[in-house]
Amino acid sequence: MTSGTKLLNDDGSASMATLFMSSHHGLRRDLGRFGTALARVKAGDRSHVEALQGEWKGYHATLHGHHAMEDGSIFPELREKQPALRPVIERLASDHRRIDPILERGDAAFAALPKTAEAEAVIGELSALLDDHLALEEAEIAPHLRSAKEFPPPPNDEMLNMYAQGFAWSLHGIADEVVGPLLKMLPEALVARLPAAQAEFTARCERVWGSAKVGRSSTSVPAPL
Question: Which helix (H) or strand (E) element contains residue 86?
Fold first, then answer.
């Protein structure tokens, strides 16, 4: 696995690149958690099977949504403004098309728990593919997002809650020295919703993984405990 890319800009400020790569951190973090959890199921611990099945559905939606946002928003703009990036963007879009069938296999594999063989295979394939995919995005796409430092206010209360839940997920395991500058980017109404969303996410981690403990990373790769 890559050693990760610094989440903050060189001057210590946060940017849209920070938000973008915090999502990468969350995607990597949870793949590792799935691997550990499946090993426990394989060893005979079935106490979290139902929660794992629900968490997989959320992971599928999160990863697919992340790629849909890139394909529908980030990539078209960069393709227009940075023609040299077009081959990279085509490769990344091709990866997205490879990932979707793996996610669909994962739906059936996690529904079949406590049988773990196919679910373990899915997590292994996703981990290998995303390791290269996310590293390429961080090397080629993230630098073009570092000058963008405004986060648009959510248009309504429903979106406000959705964003709060999303940030509670992506910031779990991010170092305080990164979270501070990042919060300064966000609308006050969104920041006000975060503590409740984070408490809810902590409870969810304990229910699914058996613990909410994580390392604290300042890069796009999770830190060990």
Answer: helix 86-111
Q: Are 201 and 9 in contact (CB under 8 A)?
A: no
Report the alpha-carbon distance of residue 130 to residue 5 in Å, rounded. 15
Strand partners, 6: 219
58: which residues sit within 8 A by CB, 6+ positions away? Answer: none
d(C-alpha 9, C-alpha 143), whole Å? 9
Provide DSSP, 6-71. BSS-TTS---HHHHHHHHHHHHHHHHHHHHHHHHHHHTT--TTHHHHHHHHHHHHHHHHHHHHHII
How far CA 117 is from CA of 112, 185, 215, in Å, comes to 10, 43, 28
CA distances from 176 to 135, 163, 170, 182, 217 (A): 23, 19, 13, 10, 9
Domain 16-209 -> CATH class: mainly alpha
Sequential pLDDT tens for the chain (225 residues): 557 899 999 999 999 999 999 999 999 999 999 999 999 999 999 999 999 999 999 999 999 999 999 999 999 999 999 999 999 999 999 999 999 999 999 999 999 999 999 999 999 999 999 999 999 999 999 999 999 999 988 999 999 999 999 999 999 999 999 999 999 999 999 999 999 999 999 999 999 999 999 999 999 999 997
Residues 64 and 102: their CA atoms lie apart, in Å, by: 11
163-180 CB burial, b ≥16 within 10 A, e <16: bbbbbbbbbbbbbeebbe
Between CA 55 and CA 61, with CA 57 as vertex, the angle to 5 degrees is 115
